[in-house]
Specification:
Elements: E1 3-7, H1 12-23, E2 27-31, H2 40-49, E3 54-56, H3 63-72, E4 76-81, H4 88-93, H5 95-114, E5 120-126, H6 150-168, E6 173-179, E7 181-183, H7 202-210, E8 217-220, E9 232-233, E10 235-237, H8 238-253, E11 261-266, E12 272-273, H9 274-285, E13 291-294, H10 309-315, H11 323-339
Parallel strand pairs: 1-2, 1-4, 2-3, 4-5, 5-6, 6-11, 7-10, 8-13
Antiparallel strand pairs: 9-12
Helix pairs in contact: 1-2, 1-8, 3-5, 5-6, 7-11, 9-11
The structure holds uridine-5'-diphosphate-4-deoxy-4-fluoro-alpha-D-galactose.
Length: 341
């Protein structure tokens, strides 16, 4: 049974990926400092899979602990690196914290991985690297734009660091996965997103408004050049996204990669406006949502959705679930959370 290290394994995408890895028979070492996650997520993973993953709790900025991790798990066959701070607005206010947290941890892991027997690495990147793309849908060849936020910049710099390392050694194999907008929750209703404080992202704001935790959703702008004037995004179910990580990891282990540094967009290929998301949510939940149109949010782009050809054809992965599936699962997760608290 191959063993993988999943950093940030108790976070939103990390926990769903851990579940999929366990379901496919792999052994998982979860590394998480609980800075933006809770220990109960470990129990939730166990209740879904019947297996409690190995858990190492520490901050990846602690270089000696990263070193210990790789000594202890020298039989690891690959690392999926999710651990990072991810709040765009906070990153603008605290840039050094973001550069320190997201880049130091990445560098320490890559240093250890370079000295390990198996050098397979999957990196959580983001469609934010494209900024406001000129051509839609967005292919992997679209130019990388000047980053809008320090958070986005850590993803760009992270990709560059990995690309440079791959140039130094053919033995080092990496894939950067550029996510579009991950949403949804596990179909069991027992695992999902746990935003701290007031949610910044659309879907948790919708579900919290629908359940009565927030008074109303503010729709940021209806004067964009889109189908109904509201922003368009490519919303991808987190379980589809999680599965893509396993496909990518297998590609590296089976030496199927075409070069030792590859990049794939992960999205559905379909763009939906904020109003379309609201309508779809109302349909699947049977709840009327209180919302109001307000000004644009600074830093927001108009439209982004993925060209999924490369991921479909080369990776052999395709998103299977619909926007409605994702919204239903997010809603079931919200209901479950509030019923039990
Ligand atoms: N929106 C609202 N009201 C809200 C929240 C969001 O109208 O309360 C709108 C936004 O204006 C946007 C859409 O809903 O049109 C999606 O917004 P999100 O905040 O959910 O997602 P973003 O596309 O802004 O952000 C995502 C990731 C970031 C990443 C960014 C860059 O969450 O990590 O994409 O593309 F940096």
């Amino acid at each position: 049974m191959a063993k993988f290290i999943v950093t940030g394994g108790l976070g939103f995408i990390g926990s769903h990926t851990t579940v999929e890895l366990i379901d496919q028979g792999y052994e998982v070492v979860v590394v998480d400092d609980l800075s933006n996650s809770t220990i109960e997520t470990l129990d939730r993973i166990e209740s879904i899979t019947g297996v409690k993953p190995i858990f190492e709790q520490f901050d990846l900025r602690d270089k000696s602990k990263v070193s210990e991790l790789f000594k202890k798990h020298s039989d690891q066959q690959g690392v999926i690196h999710f651990a990072a701070s991810k709040a765009v607005g906070e990153s603008v206010e605290k840039p050094l914290l973001y550069y320190e947290n997201n880049l130091n941890s990445l560098i320490y892991i890559l240093q250890e991985l370079s000295a390990s027997e198996n050098k397979n690495f999957i990196f959580s990147s983001s469609c934010t690297v494209y900024g406001e793309a000129e051509i839609l849908p967005i292919t992997e060849d679209a130019p990388v734009a000047l980053a809008e936020s320090p958070y986005g910049n850590t993803k760009q710099i992270g990709e560059e660091i990995i690309r440079d390392i791959c140039k130094t050694s053919d033995e080092f194999n990496a894939i950067a996965l550029r996510y579009f907008n991950p949403i949804g929750a596990h179909a069991s209703g027992n695992l999902g997103e746990l935003p701290l404080g007031i949610p910044q992202n659309l879907i948790p704001y919708i579900t919290q408004t629908a359940i009565g935790l927030r008074e109303k959703l503010l729709v940021f702008g209806n004067d964009y050049n889109t189908i109904d004037g509201t922003g368009v995004r490519d919303y991808i179910h987190v379980v589809d996204l999680a599965k893509a990580h396993i496909v990518a990891l297998k590609r590296l282990i089976d030496n199927k990669n075409k070069s030792n540094y590859e990049i794939f967009n992960l999205g559905t290929g379909k763009g939906n406006s904020v109003l379309e998301v609201i309508q779809a949510f109302e349909k699947v939940s049977n709840v009327k949502l209180n919302y109001e149109i307000t000004d644009r949010r600074s830093g927001d782009i108009e439209s982004a959705y993925a060209d999924t050809k490369k991921a479909n054809e080369e990776l052999g992965w395709k998103a299977e679930m619909s926007l409605e599936d994702a919204l239903l699962h997010s809603w079931q997760w919200e209901l479950n959370l509030r019923q039990n608290n």
